[in-house]
Specification:
The chain has 547 residues and is α+β, with helices and mostly antiparallel strands. It is built from 18 helices and 8 strands. A hairpin with a 2-residue loop joins strand 4 and strand 5. The N and C termini lie far apart (56 Å). 57% of the residues are buried.
């Protein structure tokens, strides 16, 4: 892939380039190629051997194990170095793809194919959440995060387009086994590139313990269940994925029964969906100022209404146009809803929130595929598609309305206050959601002149950011410095769980942002840089007598 995806130039203007950006875009691209190529190959094999019912079972057999294990494999992205998580994931993809190539060449039973395909899907689960957490980790503004998500959506759509096209060529000339030979080589190359080119992320060291991973996984599920924003967003995306799972079976049925063109047409239909997603991503890049729920609502209409007439055309041209509209709608829904999930999730829970998203999405897709597989087998395809489109349109439009309140809550954050917090040197490296949560949870105080804020020798439980005014810092009764806004103080006692090293008194009326100890420590420990710099500053100004 050459050139820059839409949003790359704008993201630089919005706040800087994405560290490891090209590598991250490459990861997303290869992931999409592998996902769609493997998916189509397995569905074609299943349909060829057992029809629509076997295809629906193939979808369920792949997705249900992945749904159960997604919270576990994605928890690694919140604890361990993300570049190592990605290397491990692509290595596992290469191994399972090689296994699928062997069993398909040997014409093994479908059950064996389903088992290996399920393992391949599980390995795929860890990649999107890990990349999403990297985007959140580096984004400095909501606009920058949105630009990067649009760029990622474009790259993902490009991979989703190339994957089916290459699969169509391979299926036309060779066998499904050859598809997985190519995927094994591609994923092996990706693992090698990631190992050498993706920079390590800025996080504190964590020990590898299976019990810790299990606890992290459960904690992620509990977090999503108890957090209204992520819970509502994930529920909506899951409803969307019911439709996407249904469409997987619909596309195969349309290719085989309505058009009578077989597996190659299936790949072309999937490619048309991806082409539509490309158009949707480009369109989104030109409308960054829209509200996220506007993207979601517009996408919901485009992703459902064309289904109502998809059963009418008897030639492939009109089918490809309708499917492209579906792809454009799905891209808009994905960009808006994934950005909303990143904005509303705690940064330390991002990978796990996306793990719960993967889990619920996989179950939803399996339900959609299984139900529609049975419906299409028993009913007229045209009537079935009309019903599916209308029901999906109503459900998704109602769902998009419920997300408006969630987006409004993200807009209540004082962006100017976030910028002031970022002015504190050791808070500057923190991810955007962490700073937004600090800004939302702190206490803003106005204090008159000549008032004591902290007293030397007393326990310290708060960190202060001086937004306006000036204060004197005294040790043993002697003024040692004067701080004028913008400034900060109070970190020494909090970091060392010690008493105050100095007395701080206002000399003018002051406006302060006050952060309690638990929130402060949780924030500065999010990145190794923040934690190290805060400790260095505290050690520099800490008196030996307090040591």
């Amino acid at each position: 892939m050459t050139g820059s995806p839409p949003g790359a130039e704008q993201s630089t203007r919005a706040g800087g380039s994405l560290p490891g950006g090209r590598s991250l875009f490459g990861i997303t691209f290869i992931h999409a190629v592998a996902e769609y190529a493997a998916w189509i190959a397995v569905l074609v094999v299943a349909y060829d051997r057992g029809g629509a019912t076997a295809t629906g079972l193939a979808v369920a057999a792949q997705l249900i194990p992945a749904a159960l294990l997604a919270p576990v494999v994605t928890a690694a992205g919140d604890r361990f170095p993300r570049h190592l998580v990605l290397v491990t994931a692509f290595t596992a993809l290469a191994v399972t793809a090689a296994g699928l190539a062997i069993v398909l060449a040997a014409d093994a039973d479908l059950i064996v194919v389903y088992v290996l395909a399920a393992a391949f899907t599980v390995a795929l689960c860890s990649t999107p959440g890990t990349v999403a957490s990297l985007l959140v980790h580096h984004a400095r503004t909501p606009v920058e995060l949105m630009h990067w998500n649009v760029a990622q959506s474009f790259v993902r759509a490009a991979g989703s387009l190339l994957g089916p096209l290459l699969t169509a060529l391979v299926l036309a000339a060779l066998t499904p086994s050859a598809v997985f030979v190519g995927l094994a080589l591609l994923c092996s190359a990706a693992a090698t590139v990631i190992a050498f080119r993706l920079p390590p992320d800025d996080r504190l060291h964590s020990d590898l313990r299976l019990r810790t991973i299990a606890v992290d996984s459960v904690e992620g599920v509990r977090y999503v269940a108890g957090a209204p924003g992520p819970r509502r967003t994930i529920a909506f995306i899951a409803a969307t994925e019911v439709l996407m799972g249904a469409l997987d079976v619909v596309f195969v049925a349309v290719a085989f029964e309505q058009l009578d063109l077989g597996g190659s047409a299936t790949a072309l239909i999937a490619a048309s969906f991806a082409a539509g997603a490309l158009v949707g991503s480009v369109s989104a890049s030109r409308r960054i100022g829209w509200k996220l729920t506007t993207f979601i609502t517009a996408g919901a209409l485009l992703a459902t209404l064309p289904v109502t007439v998809l059963g009418e055309p008897s030639r492939i041209g009109p089918v490809l146009i309708l499917v492209a509209l579906l792809g454009a709608g799905h891209a808009l829904v994905e960009i808006g809803s994934h950005t909303l999930l990143q904005r509303t999730s705690s940064e330390r829970m991002t990978s796990r929130a996306f793990g719960v998203l993967d889990s619920s999405s996989l179950v939803a897709a399996a339900i959609g595929a299984s139900v529609v597989g049975a419906v299409i087998s028993d009913d007229d395809l045209t009537l079935a598609l009309l019903t599916i489109g209308l029901v999906a349109a109503v459900v998704l439009l109602v769902g998009s309305m419920t997300l408006r309140r969630t987006e409004q809550q993200t807009e209540l954050v004082d962006t100017a206050l976030v910028d002031r917090l970022r002015g504190v040197s050791f808070l500057e490296p923190l991810p955007l959601p962490t700073l937004e949560r600090l800004a939302s949870g702190l206490d803003r105080r106005t204090v008159d002149a000549h008032q004591g804020l902290v007293v030397q020798g007393e326990p310290g439980h708060e960190f202060f950011v001086l937004l306006d005014g000036a204060v004197d810092v005294s040790i043993d009764g002697s003024v040692v410095s004067r701080l004028v806004a913008p400034a900060s103080f109070g970190e020494i006692a909090l970091l060392h769980d010690d008493v105050r090293a100095a007395t701080v008194t206002t000399i003018t009326p002051c406006e302060l942002a006050v952060i309690e100890q638990r929130s402060f420590l949780d924030a500065v420990r999010r990145t190794a840089t923040s934690h190290r710099e805060a400790l260095d500053i505290a050690q520099r100004y800490r008196r030996p007598s307090n040591g």
